[in-house]
Amino acid sequence: MELCKRDSECPTLEGADHLSQTQLLTRLTHVCRYDRLERPKRESINGTNGPVKVYARAYIYFMQNLEAHDLQFKIHALLQFRYVDPRLVFREVAPNRTKPIMGEQSLRDLLWVPHVFLANERSSDILGTAEKDILTSISPDGTVIVSTRISATLYCWMNLQKFPFDEQHCSTVLESWMYNLDDLVLLWEHKSPVTLAPELHLTEYVLLEMFTNETVINADLSDLRHGAFAGNYSSLSFTVHLAREMGFYMMDYFIPSIMLVAISWVTFWLQADQSAPRITLGTSTMLTFITLASAQGKTLPKVSYIKASEIWFLGCTGFIFGSLVEFAFVNTIWRRKRNVEVKKVNSKHVLKQAITPRPARKDMSGLHKSHSCTSLADSATTVSANSFNNYLTVHSIPQKSPSSATLPIIATTDVDRAMADASNVTIQIEGQTSNVNGNGWTTMTPQEVAIWIDKRSRFVFPIAFVIFNIFYWTFVYYV
């Protein structure tokens, strides 16, 4: 009785060509014919109801730069889903209607639509003001197309080990919410599944490639991803491969840091006893570089692994710190009182004597000791004492030309062996012409050792920094 009453109340579809879109849609979606809570039926080859095939397409017209500190990015996109609902076919009842029925959110609310969500979203909204940007169309053959403009903030799990030379893969993942693989299958459109707007441009990244993927997500009872319903769920994703632009970091970080390291080497041209300028230059360079590096690192998340930018920071800090240590080393040597003798004037022997200084070796006969003078007079001076002391004579050598300067030569003569040529000592400090004793050892004053180390540092530090750069940039671009 009730069934007959319902059939009598079911509106007819006769004369559908003369109905308006709203009237035709009202009759098509009447409860006697259509249940929006029930998915469309699709007969399979064996006669059973197969899953509904939903084809998806995306049009990306805005993409915000990746925010590394929050591991996220933002997109504005048009998502379009296409499927066939046999209950909405009106080609036979309205043969003269060739255009689809089109509407907005009100039309969408009358239909069954697949519930698809963004699996890696942080937040999302449907764009539009009073009327949301939702477009729905129903073709005469029952094909339904639902288009939605959305704004979404999505997580992107970034690997920053090679920052700022990193490349990132950021995905947008779509999954079926309530229908598992037996009821609904998500597929990408065969032609142009994902399209980027021609005017789309990223300031910090360059798009290398983009690819799509279709997969299946397995959910068990312990997984609330799909409302604690176990099963296999269809999933779609499209991934963009982005590479970070290097111009900003080269101009604002790497080139200034190289200049700061080079400035720290100026101390090698200052005399070792000039403590104030060398300390001021070294500490100010160190503080400036740390400030530069900390400002750059504030935009990054706190990760446990070391990044390429941190390797650069540690390397440059080591070179600046090394110049400060070198000054402390040569300044300590400069203030020593005793001369040292080295077997050969090379790095191995000079540094060994500088680190572990020993007094000047005694002559093979053991009859006299080597004496040195650590200060110079501006004119010829003769110092006399008792017979156990040395005579000091400073000879001024006239300059050959105004542009060339020859420093005074210090000659010391032992009183007891004044007539022995082997005991004469001649030292030219700035030219570093040291005396070679009869026993084959070379006597150097502390000042000569300090100057010798400074001169070698002028070449050792830049060469070491160039080698560091070769290894660093090779690692960045080829490893």
UniProtKB/TrEMBL annotation:
Protein name as it appears in the record: pH-sensitive chloride channel 2
Similarity-based family: Belongs to the ligand-gated ion channel (TC 1.A.9) family.
Subcellular location: Cell membrane
GO molecular function: chloride channel activity; extracellular ligand-gated monoatomic ion channel activity; ligand-gated monoatomic anion channel activity; transmembrane signaling receptor activity
Keyword Lyase found: no
Organism expressing this protein natively: Anopheles epiroticus
Transmembrane segments: 253-272, 311-334, 459-478
Domain Neurotransmitter-gated ion-channel ligand-binding stretches: 22-246
Membrane topology: Multi-pass membrane protein
Reactions this protein catalyses: chloride(in) = chloride(out)
Stretches assigned to the Neurotransmitter-gated ion-channel transmembrane domain: 254-473
Keyword annotations: Cell membrane, Glycoprotein, Ion channel, Ion transport, Ligand-gated ion channel, Membrane, Signal, Transmembrane, Transmembrane helix, Transport
Any GO CC annotation of this UniProt entry: plasma membrane
Stored PROSITE patterns: NEUROTR_ION_CHANNEL (PS00236)
Keyword Transmembrane among record annotations: yes
